[in-house]
Amino acid sequence: MAVSNWQDFITQTDGRMADVRKGIPDVAKGFHELARAAIAPGALDSKTKELIALAIGITARCDGCLAYHAKAAARYGATRQEIVETIGVAVYMGGGPSMIYGAEALAAFDAFAEPE
Fold it and tell me: Which Pfam families match (predicted)?
């Protein structure tokens, strides 16, 4: 699916995820804690971890992953060049489909990032 407006996509997905969280609150709480712990700085900083998550989202062809991790990467200060290089690694690992989703990831990042 080609997303035309990443901001709207996140707003819509947030609403849908709220419905899911209401139905499985314990699972949702556990997932939230897992995400928080996984992205917390350690040997790797949070930005690097979000770039890894973005690369996985590209290879998994997950639009929601692209949106949320591109937004988070921008929040953690990722540059457009870092995003492009992340896409390069994803293409290396995932082939042609990752090239297409890499382009989507770059569009998502551009929607959330401050102009350089």
Answer: CMD
Here the tokens at position 102 are 């890499």
So where are the chain's domains?
8-112
Length of the chain in terms of residues written = 116
The dihedral built from the CA positions of residue 8, 54, 72 and 18, taken in this order, carries a sign that is positive
Residue pLDDT, tens place only, 16-63: 999 999 999 999 999 999 999 999 999 999 999 999 999 999 999 999
In a 10 Å sphere around its CB, with 0-12 CB exposed, 13-18 middle and 19+ buried, how is residue 14 labelled? Answer: exposed
- CA distances, 49 to each of 9, 19, 61, 68, 96 (Å): 23, 27, 18, 13, 24
What CATH number labels 8-112? 1.20.1290.10
